[in-house]
Amino acid sequence: MNRASLGLIYFTFCALSRFACAQDSLGGSPDAGAGASNVSFGSASTPYGSPQYGEGALPPSQVPPTNEGPVIAPQGVVLPAGYGFVPQTFIPGEGRFAQPPYRVTFSLSQGYDDNVYTAPDTQRLPFPGARMTTLPKVGSWETYGNMGVQIRLASPRSVFSLDANLGGTYYWRRSTENFDFNDSVTLYYAHQFSPRLQVDAEAVFVIAPQEDFSNFNAPNGGGGSSGEYFIGTSKFDLTYQWTPRFQTVSSYVFNTLVYTNSAFSSGNYYQNILGNQFRFNLNPRLVAVAEYRFASTETDFSSSSSVSNFLLGGFDYSFNRRLSATVRAGAELRDYQMGNFQDAPFVETTLQYVYGHNSTIVWDNRYGFEPAGLAQTRQTSYRTSLAINQVVTARIVANLGFNYDHFDTDNIANNINVDTEDDFNVSVGATYTLNKNFSLNAAYTFTDVVSSLAFTSYTRNRIFFGATYTF
Question: Phi and psi for 62 in degrees, rounded to 5?
């Protein structure tokens, strides 16, 4: 992570802190009652890509801090952060749990994609006169349909939330397969066995044909025509309150990425992680954290398989009822199966801010090793995602998302750089609610991938208009 990136993080962090304090001094608290809109993390509301982590949940900054450090907060259930998930608070009767327990939605959208093959731009050929080795840049109208099922169940001790989506996109002008599947399942569950003990689970499973820059566990965008893939991220936590100030969180995480096209099987991986957090309440607002993680990563090429040890420290801090931050930083020590040892800094941060009437800003960052998409290589990445969910009126909600990813891919044996890539993605969208059953939506996304590998850089514009019916 370069000095410019660190400076950007510090500047935005300080600016939001000052603005939040000014907002909080005006009085009032965020209202998450019935009718509150869902929170979208990572990108504007679009039919493309996976559901965002934390949709509809309340940031923990809305739960007043307490020295007791409860497993179950006074107003709801707190799910720990980390491993690609943001911290969340689910409150029975509010937010998503103010909705009917069972809902079914049908969505239909019409849009246009100006680069359906993610073909490289001609002006970015590696040298003058180079021949294109990929499909040409082609635009196409596209029709997207989706059926969704939502389940929200809550009791004083438990919460359960499920979002399942079955959808697909039909391209009117594409010489290869005309239809792509876009399916996903997002699950949250937590149960309090006693005032001291809680278990919870979070999972996101996606089948997608397109890059999803808002998902920190998704593949990078270079050579984006790699085809359909399955990505799964699941986390299970056991939280125990030993004393009023001391708490532990033991976690198991399973991550996987599998391409349906065997030509890209070098990017497949299966990762198991065991971790333990030791949390100590220093004061009503600040929790100090020490954390250890052990990770085993298996790839289809044994030379890239590895085991890692993470030594991390950090804190969770609630500035006020509106603004909270989570920081983890330390080192990853990685041993590759082929015998090489590597180490790198590892950083995870989340900043959440609630302003106005349920409008939100969420900023996530991560730096460290990632499974590489090429055999006998290692990949170091910096990912940042900024999402703004603006409640304009009781009927209109606007979304803005910005995602930037930087990847350095090096040969494991000799440390020679194989590829450097920068991905930029901006999305903007809006939803207009006509009545309790019917809503209209629109969105636009722009993607720019710049890679040092020949024929993998491209730009892409997508726009769509659609409607959703809920019952």
Answer: -85, -5
Cα separation, 67 vs 45, whole angstroms: 38
What was the pLDDT predicted at 375?
66
- Nearest of 385, 395, 463, 469 to residue 429 by alpha carbon: 463
- DSSP codes, 249-285: EEEEEEEEEEESSGGGGGG-EEEEEEEEEEEEESSSS
CA–CA dist 85, 204 (Å, integer): 10
Contact (Cβ atoms closer than 8 angstroms) between residue 378 and residue 362? no
- 8 Å CB contact between 138 and 118: no
Residue 367 has pLDDT above 90, yes or no: yes
Scored b (16 or more CB within 10 A) or e, 361-397 reads bbbbbbbbbbbbbbebbbbbbbbbbbbbbbbeeeeeb
User: What SS3 state is found at 10?
Assistant: helix
Paired residues of 231 in beta bridges: 206, 257
Condensed to tens digits (0 to 9), the pLDDT of residues 380-395 reads 999 999 999 999 999 9
Q: How far is CA 285 from the centre of its chain?
A: 26
Contact 349, 330 (CB under 8 A): no
Instruction: End-to-end CA distance of the chain: give it in Å, rounded.
Output: 47
**Cα dihedral 207, 212, 217, 218 sign:** positive
Of 32-36, 91-95, 382-386, 457-461, the least confident: 32-36
The count of other CB atoms within 10 Å of the CB of residue 407 is 21
Q: Which domains does the chain have, with CATH numbers?
A: 3-470 (2.40.170)
Q: 126 versus 352: which is more confidently predicted?
A: 352
Question: What distance in Å separates the CA atoms of residue 112 and residue 118, rounded to the nearest whole number?
Answer: 14
Q: Is 37 exposed, middle or buried (0-12, 13-18, 19+ CB in 10 A)?
A: buried
CA distance 431 to 444: 13
pLDDT of residue 48: 40
Output the pLDDT for position 122.
60
CA nearest to 81, candidates 367, 319, 365: 365
